[in-house]
Fold Helix-turn-helix protein.
Amino acid sequence: MTTEEFGRALRRWRDRVRPEAAGLPAGGRRRAAGLRREELARLTGISVDYVTRLEQGRATSPSAQVVTALARALRLSEDESAHLFRTAGLAPPRPELVPAQITPSVQRLLDRLAGTPVAVFDASWTLLTANALHVAVSGDPSPLRGNERNIAWQHFINGGLGRVRYTPEQAIAFETALVADLRTASARYPADQRLRRLVAELRTRSAHFARLWDSGVVGTHRAARKTIDHPQVGPMTLDCDVLTVAGSDLRIVPYTAEPDTEDADRLALLAVIGTQPLGA
């Protein structure tokens, strides 16, 4: 535990919080605009003496419950709370469930990439959303429900990803990275029952997945080239990147074509004919 840094952070953030912002009366004359130690003690349910010893670096090893109460009372941001936990020698708490919210910034990015096929997945590789051009490239996911929207489920149980064609080498790399990602997500979000049920179903219904899972394979998703067998414009070889959004574990997956190629021409054609409203 970095006792001096913990105490400095505690004092700095206590001085920043005005009493009325914490639901307390400002009351009389105050030497500083922030919370008094006794006020912070009241908000957190710990003694004034313990708050004093923490700030002075004389108390060590506060519990996670104490640090959580301090972070809540001091109105700390997620990053500030994580810093307080680390200076207390504790691992910052993680969200219990796989994040599935599309943040406003990610939505703005999708809106500005209308000319690029883009999909967004959560940490378990369940599809959250896709723009119109990605739907035109890969097919309409709107009828899919539950695990049917999960890439691992589609690949290992449903017999593949529809229009995507892999070489044997590409398939091995893809499967290795996919299983490794699911194992990482399972360790990061152990309380997520949906994820636990997904992995259990994959292990039960796919012997291949079970072998990979039990072997402890390690891999990461890297930039790759995929061939899409499209029923309207023909085969397209596209570059596929995986971009991870820090703090939310969202996976943004764009497809791009090399400029001045037949693949680029076919993708441009699909952007015209494949995104038209039905019946146009």
User: Anything to note?
Assistant: Residues 168-188 form the longest helix (21 residues). The chain has a mean pLDDT of 89.
